[in-house]
Amino acid sequence: MVSERAGSSEEANDGAQLNHAVAERLEPVARDERDEYVLVGGGLQNALIALALLERRPDTRLTLIEREPELGGNHTWCLHEGDVPAELSSVVASLMERRWPAHDVIFPRARRRLPSAYLALTSAGLRRALSSRFASAPAARLLTANVLAVEPGRAVLQGGAAVHGQLLVDARGPGQLAARAAGYQKFLGLELELSSGTAPELPLLMDASVPQLDGFRFVYVLPWAPARVLVEDTYYSTSPELDRPLLRERVLAYAAGRGMQVRSVLREEHGVLPLPSELPEPASPAGLVCAGYAGGLFHPTTGYSMPVALRFAAFLAARPAAAALGADYQRWRAAHARQVRFCLLLNRMLFGAFAPEERYHVLERFYGLPQSTIRRFYALETLASDRARIICGRPPRGFSMRRWLAGGAPA
Ligand SMILES: Cc1cc2nc3c(=O)[nH]c(=O)nc-3n(C[C@H](O)[C@H](O)[C@H](O)COP(=O)(O)OP(=O)(O)OC[C@H]3O[C@@H](n4cnc5c(N)ncnc54)[C@H](O)[C@@H]3O)c2cc1C
User: Fold this and answer.
1) Same-domain status, 15 and 126
2) Is the CB of 185 under 6 A from ligand 1?
3) Cβ–ligand 1 contact at 107 (below 6 Å)
4) Which of 67, 79, 297 to mutate to test the pocket of ligand 1 (most atoms within 8 A of CB)?
5) Residue nearest to ligand 1 atom 11, measured at CA
6) HSE on the CB side for 226, CA within 13 Å?
7) Is residue 411 very low, low, confident or very high in pLDDT (cuts 50, 70, 90)?
8) Is the CB of 66 under 6 A from ligand 1?
């Protein structure tokens, strides 16, 4: 998937870079030969859509447009194995770099091992999978260009050129999310090579036994190998500020405190994900759908987007582009919106009714619930009974109705 500048393209020039060989095949683009799909934003969501479409039909006419020189950013993405839709099991298998049979959580007064498998992939693996899939897809092309506007039927590139398609999928990432944030999930992770000591055997999704600073704080530990581990310092905070030097120090201090001596830092990743209190449904005019984090297709409380991104990719791949946004889509979206509404309430409560240093009680209580409820919550597949379990009964310690009614101000 080599991106080269294609100065001769009628459709896209002026700052756009094309996969040359494929671009030549597609030129000139007659109106009735326009792409079936134009995927705007080459991150997780559209990468999964491209892989799902091309696996089903390698001759799908699609253009994937990314403004950065590389697709997929710099991420480690994890998901629970149960979140993989059956239709996408081979796509996911081609992406997965590590599988663990279980995972752990630790809180000040509780620890628990959950026997549900956990999977991890990286941006580098995503790029490899896309590269190999595009290489055998005669009508798929990658365009490196900054998209200024996405409209039904076309994406307008910087410089004024446009790429036309039957269905535009706008997935330009968390930065494009039009929502009011209740708070943020922010984190910095270092992938460490160890000289002595060993990483835990299983992923530690939350180690909240650490000092509670800047909101609910936990450390996330992903043991790639006995001597290679990703350690992420994570906060549920009302501030989006990320003090990277400070968090680097805290990650290294955490590793040292767990007996892991660091030989070198192999890579770093960070994120500031808005966790909304309100999430307006994006308009969906014919021929255009907003997806991924930007389109509200993520879990408002965990910030995870993988389960919904996979589901949406499977949904699109099962339908022709021209018929993708019909009544089925409205039903699919309404079911997602119902799940989202519950999480928005939780976010308002988490950030509004608890003092920052008390927020961990909510998660500590949550992890005492039945495993099936926890699984469905992460997957955004809660049943009414799960929602009742999560919200009813004695509230977690630290809950303050007065604080909540006062808009999150100290009680
Ligand atoms: C470091 C990190 C780790 C995460 N880990 C997990 C995890 O383990 N599990 C999980 O479920 N979720 C995780 N998330 C949350 C979520 O899954 C990711 O944010 C995910 O990448 C969102 O996918 P997306 O396709 O919506 O957006 P992105 O992956 O951010 O992709 C958007 C793409 O659009 C491009 N773009 C933006 N504007 C334009 C433009 N004008 N023109 C062209 N291209 C443009 C961007 O460059 C980017 O490549 C993580 C997030 C981060 C930041």
Assistant:
1) yes
2) no
3) no
4) 67
5) 304
6) 4
7) low
8) yes
Spacing of C-alpha 404 from chain mean position: 29
The answer, yes or no, to whether any atom of ligand 1 lies below 6 A from the CB of 274, is: no
Q: What is the pLDDT of residues 21-67, one digit of tens each?
A: 333 333 444 444 589 999 999 999 999 999 999 999 999 999 999 99
How many domains are contained in the chain? 3
Ligand 1: does its nearest atom lie under 6 Å from the Cβ of 15?
no
Q: What is the CA radius of gyration of the chain?
A: 22
Same domain, 149 and 226: no
Ligand 1 centre and the CA of 44: distance in Å?
6
Of 290, 304, 308, 378, the one to substitute when testing ligand 1's pocket (max ligand atoms within 8 A of C-beta) is: 304
Q: Tens of pLDDT along 132-141?
A: 999 999 999 9
Tell whether the model's pLDDT for residue 11 goes beyond 50.
no
**142 and 61 share one domain:** yes
| Distance (Å) from CA 116 to ligand 1 centroid | 25
Q: Residue 343: what residue type?
A: C
In a domain, 331, yes or no: no
Q: Can you give the CATH number for the domain in which 136 is found?
A: 3.50.50.60
Domain that holds residue 136: 4-74+121-178+279-325
Same domain, 316 and 283: yes
Nearest C-alpha neighbor of 252 from the set 188, 201, 206, 202: 188
> Does 99 reside within a domain?
no
Kind and range of the H or E run holding 297: none
Place of tokens 């279980």: 102
Residue 332 placed within a domain = no
Q: Are 289 and 49 in contact (CB under 8 A)?
A: no
Checking if the pLDDT of 18 tops 70, the result is no
Query: How remote is the C-alpha of 95 from its chain's centroid?
Result: 15
One domain, residues 142 and 52: yes
Residue range 249-259, pLDDT digits in tens: 999 999 999 99
Whether the pLDDT of residue 14 is over 90: the answer is no
pLDDT (tens digit per residue) in 164-185: 999 999 999 988 887 788 999 9
DSSP 336-358: HHHHHHHHHHHHHHHHHSS-GGG
Do 11 and 58 fall within a single domain? yes
The answer to whether the pTM exceeds 0.85 is yes
Greatest mean pLDDT among 43-47, 273-277, 391-395, 400-404: 43-47
Q: Are residues 162 and 216 in the same domain?
A: no
Residues in contact with 326: Cβ distance below 8 Å, sequence separation at least 6, in sequence order: none
